[in-house]
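Protein Record: Sequence and Backbone Structure Tokens
======================================================
Scope: a single protein chain, as residues and as a discrete description of its fold.
Tokens: labelled as protein backbone structure tokens, with as many entries as the chain has residues.
Position: the record begins directly beneath this header, with no further notes in between.
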Amino acid sequence: MSELPEVEVVRRGLDRWITGRTVATVDVLHPRAVRRHDGGALAFEADLTGCTITAVERRGKYLWLVLDGGESGALVAHLGMSGQLLVVEAQRNDDPHLRVRIGWSPGRTPQRELRFVDQRTFGGLFLEPLVVEPALGRTVPASVAHIAPDPFEPGFDRLAVAKNIRRKRTGLKRALLDQTVVSGIGNIYADEALWRARQHFARRTESLTSPQIAEVLDHATEVMSAALTQGGTSFDALYVDVNGSSGYFSRSLNAYGQEGEPCPRCGRFIVREAFMNRSSFRCPSCQRRPRVPHG
């Protein structure tokens, strides 16, 4: 699943191409893609047509298009495991997994359109109202209000988040992946942050000081910032920007996906271990297992 840097790359691309555009045509090619919209495909097409996209925003891994300055709510995009938002020439042949096509009023030539492509149909699009999120006073879609701010949002309080994580009394990586505590940090960047901080993923949060946890959050922010400069991390054709281009931060990963490779810091081989129905990667020398593991 795409993580914060990959979604931010998509957000920036969409902002460039579609902010200020008025939706002229909407075609739902697969009803499952709009299953969360009240009224289904026909209502989705009618409700979105005529709206002007005034901003493209994101929190963590969640992306939405603000409609008519918020008066018409937001078009929320859940990319799921394989969803893609692509801006392509309108004459381009349809992808076999094209689910929704959105066109705007004539502008530059050649004419382009926004396409939602989703091979596994786990993702989807839907319209919903915006609400004021109390912690930062930011306006967000109703379905996003329970998601915690991410480290790139103005007003993000890393020390307060670190104290909250410490109180969770759970494994460190579990807390980092909890989107109600801090959003945007997924499996890839959690492993990279923990490698940089020399912390084991199962270290108990209450055994760490708040400054130690804040250091891990700093490393997560740094590694995600580095990924952004390289277009995100792509392992297959499903992870692309709005132009269909892949990111190449995977070449800079120190731990994630590096099983059997030497640790760039000490030379020990990186190991892979089971974690929450997925994998964690670490250096057995730099990130020693705690005495009482908790995963």
In short: Residues 210-229 form the longest helix (20 residues).
